């Protein structure tokens, strides 16, 4: 006999919870074991019921879904939390990933698609709202590239962006011109750019350097 994934529904709108419960009643492999109307109640029920997956709204009274997720992941790290929300903004999306949510879905998702996405969660995958990932993931990848740069390389790139020549950069940082060239070679490789102009354009576009002191 296949073990069903136990679901806890968390939303401050009773109609949403009851609608989801009714929808999921016919889903093979899933079982709704509880409902909560806010984040605090969600934590209390999760500790009692030990669900496999928590479907969590964000905007709720007493304790919002993001803070509830953070606390849940600290108390019960094995539980998978999937945010189901109307919030399609970058800030909420980033915050959900930061507090440990395994998924981020919008309430506009089609019922059948929600079923498939929860199956992905059960398998250990991370479903994300496609519209948001198209905006956010390139930014995250850019930040990852920026994180590869050493503090000195960031200094050099910042000075390049401000229009300084290699000689001027060397004088400003009290290093040789050859060292500046080595830093630039490393920067181009890490940012996957062909020349200093492309590196500066990439860095400015993704907020990796600042033109002002």
TrEMBL record:
A single GO BP: phosphorelay signal transduction system
Pfam families the record matches: GerE, Response_reg
Domain of life of the organism encoding this protein: Bacteria
Keywords carried by this UniProt record: DNA-binding, Phosphoprotein, Transcription, Transcription regulation
GO molecular function: DNA binding
Keyword Zinc: no
Residues covered by the HTH luxR-type domain: 142-207
UniProt-listed PROSITE patterns: HTH_LUXR_1, HTH_LUXR_2, RESPONSE_REGULATORY
SUPFAM superfamilies cross-referenced by the UniProt entry: CheY-like (SSF52172)
Modified residues (4-aspartylphosphate): 57
Domain Response regulatory: 6-122
UniProt cross-references to PANTHER family, sorted A to Z: TWO-COMPONENT RESPONSE REGULATOR (PTHR43214:SF43)
Primary role: May play the central regulatory role in sporulation. It may be an element of the effector pathway responsible for the activation of sporulation genes in response to nutritional stress. Spo0A may act in concert with spo0H (a sigma factor) to control the expression of some genes that are critical to the sporulation process.
Protein's UniProt name: Stage 0 sporulation protein A homolog
Species in which this protein is naturally found: Neomoorella glycerini
Gene name as annotated: vraR
């Amino acid at each position: 006999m296949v073990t069903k994934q136990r679901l806890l529904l968390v939303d401050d709108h009773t109609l949403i919870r009851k609608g989801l419960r009714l929808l999921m009643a016919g889903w093979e492999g899933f079982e709704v074991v509880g409902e909560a109307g806010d984040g605090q109640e969600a934590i209390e029920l999760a500790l009692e019921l030990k669900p496999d997956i928590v479907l969590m709204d964000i905007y709720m009274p007493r304790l919002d879904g993001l803070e509830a997720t953070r606390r849940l992941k600290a108390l019960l790290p094995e539980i998978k939390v999937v945010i189901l929300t109307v919030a399609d903004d970058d800030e909420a999306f980033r915050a959900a990933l930061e507090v440990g949510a395994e998924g981020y879905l919008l309430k506009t998702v089609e019922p059948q698609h929600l079923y498939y996405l929860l199956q992905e969660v059960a398998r250990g995958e991370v479903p994300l709202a496609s519209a948001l990932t198209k905006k956010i993931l390139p930014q995250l990848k850019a930040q990852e590239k920026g994180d590869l740069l050493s503090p000195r390389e960031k200094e050099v790139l910042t000075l390049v962006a401000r229009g300084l020549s290699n000689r001027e950069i060397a004088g400003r940082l009290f290093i040789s011109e050859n060292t500046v060239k080595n830093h630039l070679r490393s920067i181009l490789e890490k940012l996957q750019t062909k020349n200093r102009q492309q590196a500066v354009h990439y860095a400015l576009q993704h907020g990796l350097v600042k033109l002002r002191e």
